[in-house]
Design brief:
The complex is a heterodimer. By secondary structure, chain A is mostly helical. Chain A has 10 helices and no strands. The longest helix of chain A is centred in the middle third of the chain and has 24 residues, at about 90-115. By secondary structure, chain B is mostly helical. Helices cover about 60% and strands about 0% of the residues of chain B. Chain B has 6 helices and no strands. In chain B, helix 2 runs antiparallel to helix 3 and helix 3 (about 45-55) crosses helix 4. Chain B has helices spanning about 1-10, 30-40, 45-55, 60-85, 90-95, 95-100. The longest helix of chain B has 24 residues, at about 60-85. The chains are: A mainly alpha, B mainly alpha. At the A-B interface, helix 4, helix 6, helix 8 and helix 10 of A face helix 1, helix 2, helix 3 and helix 4 of B.
Chain lengths: ~210, ~110
């Protein structure tokens, strides 16, 4: 698993292990969706067919539209699209779809960057949704309920999804304490300024301030 | 964060290069790294050639770092847009020159 077939260079073990952990996370039942629904939705999303396939996996069309747009056309994602999905299916399910599609976008994005074949999606683990949802959060001025704080906490309506999201920061970018160091560098590899060149240009094309 | 890290490494940078690659950013390897992002995102250039340029000019390990940072921000940008998290006013004021030079106002939702 995660052999990065086609990559012209070997891949750091920490990145590989992080992606195996993320794949295991995606293969398990989520807070509101079964593992089967999660994996079928992600497969359809990769193909750009989540909108039409969403009913087959027991979801409303708005969730499929959110998944397709988020993966393929993130610039099109706005409050109207997110609220339509959340109003139809509930805030937790909308956040779950945002989380799993964003995690898939990260892992597939790294593979595309390396020119590697995309990793086949994992087999879903049978079981009911976990129902692990934080109580008492409000939308405040966001599109979905979230605790106050910076972007790492925005998926914490669903603690397990938030943790899977945050676990990717270190291997892909920097850990929390590394982010505090303007002089951080990987040896061998990129230094902090070079890392921020890639992050800035990516965000520029995605028309996102972050 | 680009500006702060460039200062820390004592690079003289022009952040306008993030919007206009014809400008020299002033960070070693930045032309190769910007070309890599552009090619992988289908904006311009051949991805295979862009990867080779990163390997040759910055190093093989740098390609892994560049790809994983790219992947990370494919994720972060999507979470930011989908959740609608606003940018803190203090951060906007601190980065006002960069926001102006890159024309970022159109992307912003102020908190």
């Amino acid at each position: 698993m995660f052999d990065f077939v086609g990559s012209p260079v070997p891949v750091r073990p920490d990145l590989r292990y992080a992606y195996i952990a993320a794949w295991n996370h995606l293969s398990r039942p989520g807070p509101t969706l079964t593992a089967r629904s999660r994996i079928e939705l992600l497969g359809a999303t990769r193909r750009g067919e989540a909108t039409s396939a969403s009913r087959m996996v027991g979801m409303g069309q708005t969730l499929g539209e959110l998944a397709d747009s988020l993966y393929h056309r993130p610039k099109d994602v706005d409050e109207t699209l997110v609220r339509a999905a959340a109003d139809a299916e509930g805030d937790p399910t909308a956040v779950e779809v945002i989380a799993i599609v964003s995690i898939l976008s990260a892992i597939d994005g790294t593979h595309r960057g390396l020119g590697a074949d995309l990793e086949p999606l994992p087999e879903p683990i049978v079981g009911p949704p976990t129902g692990v949802i934080t109580e008492g959060l409000k939308r405040r001025r966001l599109h979905v309920p979230a605790p106050p704080g910076p972007i790492p906490f925005t998926l914490d309506l669903l603690p397990d999804e938030g943790a899977a999201f945050q676990a990717l920061f270190g291997p892909q970018y920097m850990t929390g304490w590394e982010m505090a160091l303007d002089t951080f560098f990987r040896e061998p590899g990129l230094n902090r300024a070079q890392i921020e060149v890639v992050s800035s240009r990516t965000s520029f094309h995605n028309e996102c301030f972050y | 964060m680009l500006r702060a890290s460039a200062i820390a490494f004592e690079y003289q940078i022009d952040t306008g290069a993030i919007a206009d690659p014809s400008i020299d950013l002033g960070v070693p390897g930045s032309t190769a790294l910007i070309g890599f992002v552009d090619a992988v995102m289908g904006v311009s250039g051949d991805p295979e050639a862009a990867r080779r340029t990163v390997i040759d000019e910055v190093g093989p390990e740098a390609l892994v770092d560049a790809a994983s940072v790219f992947g990370n921000f494919e994720m972060m940008n999507r979470v930011a847009e989908a959740t609608g998290i606003p940018v803190a006013g203090a951060a906007l004021e601190r980065e006002s020159i960069t926001v102006e030079s890159l024309g970022l106002h159109r992307f912003l939702k102020r908190s």
